[in-house]
Design brief:
The complex is a heterodimer of chains A (about 150) and B (about 180). By secondary structure, chain A is mainly α. Chain A has five helices and no strands. Chain A is elongated. The chains are: A mainly alpha (about 150), B mainly alpha (about 180). At the A-B interface, helix 2, helix 4 and helix 5 of A face helix 3, helix 6, helix 7 and helix 8 of B.
């Protein structure tokens, strides 16, 4: 692994394969999240897959490339937005009567827009889990190594 | 049941190898084999939700552990009062096995759960929530309060990790180490 800024990250083979696969992994995470009320999966698994796609990008291309796409302040803001969104769905239940009441209109089962507020909860949890785990990875692994390299 | 027992023995062997092997990277790989065995067990027990989550979290843990351990070789300290430690471990293992036996005797047999609350979900969830995935309708509608608690725990842990590992605190620690050197 060379230390030049131009050749940051892994070899050309890994970079080419990553360029092909990272979009598919991200798309699969979004699919698992959005179809959480129809097929197996849900917000947690989808969020972790989204986080893995960004970690994949970061391992192959280096820290700067991943942070250029998703800046660190953006991660912190979106993670908090996920948590607040889930709490907001809970508080929105007061409009119908009590905490966590699901008063959204419910379609037929097995359709994409069905099951009331579950789809919004899945999106909120995916935001929270995905960016939270990506932030933990960023802080725990890569910042440590940069501080060691500087010494 | 036979394949379940084979997988359980495989997982236990993986865990023991992860404990006993001297190389840190081999230990991480053995731990990953144990976790992926658990994923297949969930698939056999017909819980695809859990299998997906277990697979994905296992991969993430493997990446983090390999990135964290591959450049470090932690020293082993096997010397000391090993006789005392072994005796204490055996005493505790025997106590826990006895208490576990007492607890497991009163549980319902494997594969025949008590369907007191779950039967209500199975009967009414489709009309009440209209979600095709019953697991998702339980964790996000009937038991959404639990999920809110889980989200709070995760949020607190992320904030804790970011606070402990932030640049400011680490810089002070490094300066202190340099002063000591």
């Amino acid at each position: 692994m060379s230390c030049d800024n131009k050749h940051k990250g892994m070899t050309l083979i890994v970079k080419t394969i990553t360029r092909l696969t990272v979009g598919l992994i991200l798309l699969y995470g979004l699919y698992i999240t959005l179809h959480g009320h129809i097929s197996p999966g849900g917000g947690f698994a989808g969020g972790v897959i989204v986080a893995i796609s960004f970690i994949h990008l970061m391992l192959a291309f280096g820290r700067e490339e991943a942070l250029r796409i998703l800046p660190k302040s953006f991660i912190a803001v979106l993670e908090s937005v996920g948590a607040l969104l889930f709490l907001g769905i809970a508080i929105l239940g007061f409009m119908g009567g009590y905490f966590f009441l699901d008063w959204f209109s419910k379609g037929k089962p097995f359709e994409l827009f069905s099951a009331g507020s579950i789809i919004f909860s899945n999106i909120a949890i995916a935001l929270k889990v995905g960016l939270g785990l990506f932030g933990i990875f960023l802080v725990l692994i890569l910042l440590k190594f940069t501080s060691k390299d500087e010494q | 049941m036979l394949e379940l027992n084979i997988l359980l023995i495989f997982m236990i062997l993986g865990a023991i190898i992860a404990l006993e092997v001297k190389d840190l990277l081999s230990a991480v790989v053995a731990l990953g084999a144990s976790g992926l065995g658990l994923c297949v067990v969930f698939l056999i027990l017909k819980a695809p939700d859990l299998a997906i989550t277990q697979l994905v979290v296992e991969i993430l843990c493997l990446i983090i552990l390999i990135r964290a351990t591959i450049k470090k070789d932690l020293p082993f300290s096997t010397s000391g009062r090993w006789i005392f430690n072994t005796i204490v471990s055996f005493v505790f293992i025997i106590i826990f096995l006895y208490l576990g036996y007492l607890a497991i005797k009163d549980l319902p047999p494997f594969g025949y759960p008590i369907m007191r609350v779950s039967q209500f979900y199975l009967d009414h969830a489709k009309e009440l929530v209209r979600s095709a995935n019953l697991v998702s309708s339980i964790i996000l509608n009937f038991r959404a309060y639990d999920t809110l608690g889980e989200a709070t725990v995760l949020f607190a842990s992320v904030v804790g990790v970011m606070t402990v590992m932030r640049k400011k605190g680490r810089k002070k620690l490094e300066e202190k180490e340099e002063d000591e050197l």
